[in-house]
Amino acid sequence: MATVALENLKKSFGQNEVIHGVSVDIEEGEFIVIVGPSGCGKSTLLRMVAGLETVTSGIVRISGRSVNDDEPMDRDIAMVFQNYALYPHMSVFDNMAYGLKIAKVPHIEINERVSNTARLLQLEEFLKRKPRELSGGQRQRVAMGRAIVRKPSVFLFDEPLSNLDAKLRVQMRLEIKALQRDLGVTSLYVTHDQVEAMTLADRMVVMNNGFADQIGKPLDVYANPQTVFVAGFIGSPPTNFLDASQFAAGPAGGTIGIRPEHIRLSAKGRLEAWVTSTEPLGADTLVHLRVAGGSLVTVRQDASAAIPPEGTSFCLDWNESDTLFFNAEGKRIDAASG
Amino acid sequence: MEKRVSFRGIWLPTALVLPQIIITAVFFFYPAGQAIWQSLYIPDPFGLSMQWVGLGNFEFLFADRFYRGSFITTAIFSILVTVVSMGVALYLAVLADRLIKGSGSYRTLLIWPYAVAPAVAGVLWLFMFNTRVGVITWYLGILGYDWNHVLNEQEAMALVVIASSWGRISYNFLFFIAGLQAIPKSVIEAAAIDGARFWTRFRTIVFPLLSPTTFFLLVVNIIYSFFETFGVIHTITSGGPQQATTILVYKVYSDGFVGQDLGSSAAQSVILLAVVSILTVIQFKFIERRVHY
């Protein structure tokens, strides 16, 4: 187990800076999820921790020691790749034992550690098979096993679930969470899926265009997004944004955001809107409306409420305390200071 | 799935395959058949009459010390050419694969020698190693080594191996670099994280994953060194000294066209034909199965 610290980490490819100074302090055994859309630099950030990319400036510390100049093998990390990166010509056993053999661990111990890990991941019956004879979910487990068996002090996950189908993804998500809790190994997990981020993370880092927009506990980030980007990216369906100028309390040139579940459809309220379509999802219903200014708003209402027919007009209402105010630069501000 | 095209008549498909059949028949089946036919006869020196000898030509060949020697020469030559050309090509491909900047121009330059005809390559190397005016011979002389491939059998063999391998390196290089680039980068990265340094990664990951390419090149290079090296040997050593570089295909030529023993020459081509057939069977049996992972 180890702490990991990123200190003002920057990365450039040629003239092009893709990561503009990210700082995070990760505690022992913490599960950190780095989340953001594709191209935001989240994978590059992880690869810098792994030692697969050089650090342009800043420091990567593992257990307090700068590892900037260390080779990947000297950092005591293990990584799970998006395409699993299993060795195609080796059996599952050899895939998992590869790192231990190189580290010259005695044979008896290798056997013991691999079979323990295989039992943990329910891979015992597949040990003699080649990766191509396994399903996607089994390959994913082998990739996990290869990381676990080496007992590293840090796990790095690079979108490990994105090649699986939706059902398997939910199942593996729960297993990864349980495993990480049992093993207590400090983990960095990169994903573009905000649901994965919300459910797995002890704390999450929301990346946007090479900046860490917000770092915090999932529910804090959800309740208190610090930028327009975070408010729009975390949560599904995303936060509704409205031009702030139509409201007295709003900041000049800024926007206000309201989560879909915080809006009520009522006879009188702040804004008039017409229903354009509805999506009944069973437990709740999404109602899409168009407001007078032309912008679209989504409201999540409980399944017990009647589903409004298209074209009905409503007034939208919400509590003042649920309103998120953002200035013209997209940063969160208090309503009073606007 | 296989795509099957069906034709209504018989004329169009016939017309489409006819040119290839004619070429194969005229330039392959007819001479091959004639060789088999001639291998059973001994013609007189003026080509006016032929005498039936059955398998006499073959009996004579296998009893011939020089012919058996030529088999061994061919084996040594083929193995050396294959090992040298593949070894150097793999080394260069690994280096070029690691390079990011300027790898394109390196690759282009490394491919050029393949465009040089074997006979021309032979002459190039012959000039450089010429016993009187060759530049390399001269430098070796300064270093105190007296190079003379005209008299020394080992040096003659070394020279034809170098000249034959040179152009072949480019061909092998192309296949190796394609094979290396087909290995997913993340697999190499995973091995690096697992603690394998460059040489360990090469030995345990890269080389095994390249094995289909390597096996394909092995068979192709052996066949190359059996036949297409004729031009190199002809221009550099003419099979000498003391038949030290007379490989099988060169003996077919020298016995038949220089020694005018057409019957023996024909018998030798038949034996070579059998050798090629065996190599081709091996090629189809193993490569077809192993190239596609």
CATH architectural grouping of chain B: Orthogonal Bundle
End-to-end Cα distance of chain B: 18 Å
Question: What is the residue-averaged pLDDT of chain B?
Answer: 84
CATH class of the largest domain in chain A: Alpha Beta
Category by helix and strand content of chain A = alpha+beta
Q: What is the helical fraction of chain A, as a range of percent?
A: 10-25%
The SSE order of chain B reads HEEHHHHHHHHHHH
Low-confidence stretches of chain A: none
Q: TL;DR of this structure?
A:
Chain A is built from eight helices and 19 strands. Chain B is built from twelve helices and two strands.
Q: What are the main properties of this structure?
A:
heterodimer; A: 338 residues; alpha+beta; Rossmann fold; 2 domains; 5-stranded antiparallel sheet; B: 293 residues; mainly alpha; MetI-like fold; 2 strands; 2% strand
Structure description:
- The complex is a heterodimer of chains A (338) and B (293).
- Chain A has 8 helices and 19 strands.
- Chain A is α+β, with helices and mostly antiparallel strands.
- In chain A, the strands form 4 sheets. Chain A has a 6-stranded mixed beta sheet, with helices on both faces. Chain A has a 5-stranded antiparallel beta sheet with strand order 13-17-14-15-16, with no helix packed on it. Chain A has a 4-stranded antiparallel beta sheet with strand order 2-1-4-5, with helices on one face.
- In chain B, a hairpin with a 6-residue loop joins strand 1 (41-43) and strand 2 (50-52).
- Chain B starts with 10 loop residues before the first helix and ends with a helix.
- Chain B has a two-stranded antiparallel ribbon with strand order 1-2.
- The longest helix of chain B has 34 residues, at 65-98.
- Chain B is globular, with a radius of gyration of 23 Å.
- Chain A binds chain B through residues 50-52, 71-73, 77-79, 81-83, 85-89, 98-99, 102-103, 132, 146, 150, and chain B through 184, 186-187, 189-197, 200, 204-205, 208-209, 293.
